[in-house]
Amino acid sequence: MESIFNEELITQLVQTGTRGAVNVALALLILIVGYLVAGLIKRNVKRLMLKSDRIDETIAAFFSDLVRYGILVIVFIAVLNRFGVETTSLVAAIGAAALAIGLALQGTLSNVAAGVMIVFFRPYKFGDFVDIAGTSGTVKDINLFTTELAMVDGVKVIVPNAQSWGQVIMNYTANPTRRIDWTFSISYDDDIDKAISVIRDVITADERVHADPEPVVVVVGHGASSIDISARVWAATADHWVIKWEMWKQVKQAFDRNDIEIPYPHQVEIHKDA
């Protein structure tokens, strides 16, 4: 009798273990396949959205992420169903958990809300050079929680979306044109009108400088040892820094050719005879 009881117990344990092993194997299979399918659908959704001229890469990336997360939630529910968890009970549990998580993770949810605002109002998009949360860089990625920037020295910076949306955003590449400013100094002994003419000739000779609005070259101040002349021009945003750097060199060379002095501090040493 005892032998029969032991055999039945062993049989039940084997059957239970087998069912558990099958469920675990199927759950792992669902997770793996679901994860791969979510990534595949995300890429296809993004590709299809980018075919439209009215949808830019920022919006396409954001909504493809939403689709991926939605599929992963369905996969998670399917995995729980493999272990006998009822869907109705699961929905109620998820609702209660969502409320608790929402209260505990208010900062994270604010990042999601800010991410939605950034995508819809688009203060910046992929490829823009911006200053957000005190950090300057090129926008490389915008997702539900963060914005990724690449600084000019190659450093990767992750900025929470709540900080991006909640502070002043400076977008340097949003407009097609930008103004370029310089201040050049000349000696008090130099001819001011000649210096202004030399600066204007150098600037207007560059075909990248726009004629409208007209370049402005004016005296802006009398320094301790120099006359300060300001030059302002407009050019394409993409040419901004190249023109700014090149013009420093070209104006200095033009000053040298026209015997215009750029004053600099001098130190005079007086040696007394022993």
From TrEMBL:
It is a multi-pass membrane protein. The keyword Zinc-finger does not apply. InterPro entries: LSM_dom_sf, MS_channel_1st, MS_channel_C, MSC_TM_helix, MscS_archaea/bacteria_type, MscS_beta-dom_sf, MscS_channel_2nd, MscS_channel_C_sf. It is found in: Cell inner membrane; Cell membrane. Keywords: Cell inner membrane, Cell membrane, Ion channel, Ion transport, Membrane, Transmembrane, Transmembrane helix, Transport. Residues 108-173 form the Mechanosensitive ion channel MscS domain. Residues 66-106 form the Mechanosensitive ion channel transmembrane helices 2/3 domain. The keyword Ion transport applies. Its main location: membrane. Residues 180-262 form the Mechanosensitive ion channel MscS C-terminal domain. It comes from the Bacteria. The chain crosses the membrane at residues 20-38, 59-80, 92-121. Homoheptamer. Mechanosensitive channel that participates in the regulation of osmotic pressure changes within the cell, opening in response to stretch forces in the membrane lipid bilayer, without the need for other proteins. Contributes to normal resistance to hypoosmotic shock. Forms an ion channel of 1.0 nanosiemens conductance with a slight preference for anions. Belongs to the MscS (TC 1.A.23) family. This is Small-conductance mechanosensitive channel. It comes from Hyphobacterium marinum.
